[in-house]
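OP here, attaching both records as promised.
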Amino acid sequence: MKKLNVDLENCYRIKKLQAQFDFPHHRAYASYAPNGAKKILLSRTFKDLADATTSKDRIFPGRVCCRKITDEEYVDLPKESFVVIRAYNEDFGNTEKTSTVLVDGKLRKEYDGLHIGINNSKAIYLMALKEQSGSKEDLGREISSTCTKSAANFYRTLIRIKDEPLALFGAPFTDVHCDTQFDEKVPSFLCTKYFKAAIDS
């Protein structure tokens, strides 16, 4: 592919965008703009193309959406030609598509090695936690959803709480299994008259 033609209209909040990217003269293009300049909407439109999903204007769904992304011959590009790496998405993981983004062989090998090492360390860590806690739950998701708004922010959660365990003077409930402490029936039990009476006495 020598050129990439982009012709968008009413794709999310992109009213109209026409651009041509010349690849024989440039290996890559960077989009740099302040917040609110619709960079995310552009990536969302490309993600739709990669997923073979129709783009639209969510605010005004009645508007006709036009999405034409073609090569130098104005031929539509197949969805396999695109990969969109969303920011802060740790679940994207180490895949063939992400590896091929790094064209340089040395960098690709280093990238793959880092991800393999990170994933192995995560597996060992969660296995140790499962043994100590006696939990049958998905601890990666449990830890993430407890400390953040999402169950997919495991690494961000570790960064947030890394100093807290070091500041503790003891762990009085280490002999109580995690699933016992955080059983979904516990909150309802704490609200019963029997429990409240026991506490009052």
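Record two, same layout:
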Amino acid sequence: MTRARPALPRLALALLVLAACTHAAQPTTPPPDDVPTLPADILAPIRNTPGERLDLVVPLSGGDALPLAQLRGRVVVLELTSAAEPGWPETFAFYNRLVREVGPDRLAVIVVAVDPERAALSPEPDLRTHGFELGWDPQGALAARLQAAALPTVIVLDRDGRIAFVQSGPAEGRARSLTDSVRAAVAGNQH
């Protein structure tokens, strides 16, 4: 019997998750002066640029799909992450508070787990408030399409579906900048 080879997206996703998990353990030292720096577009958190409209369909954990175009008129926070990331339950509490503060008529949050097994998401954190969806992308197709550089990656879209803010890497300390970005996107796009 011949063993099936793993699909390339799963291998790429595994490498992405491994890199994100080991990133926090690596000491940060500045590069030597004689090492050239990489161009900014290679270091970008995603391949898309601020101001660009993001037209994607997000796979949800229940099996449905949610086109981002359906959320136009609201600011959208899209986070690509893994249940293995530190702070997974705290992420849900933070987004529940943010949706309650801003209001589900003005803000939608989608946390997309890229874990290959659905069981990794269980037990799910407490109930999500209205306006907060859980996505599941086991093959990492969404992360690959965006060319996400690390997990977690957070994207804030304005009411027109344009990228207003992108942040990638470890979650510590990002709550304030993310909250400020959401507030600015809501205030800046009053119709």
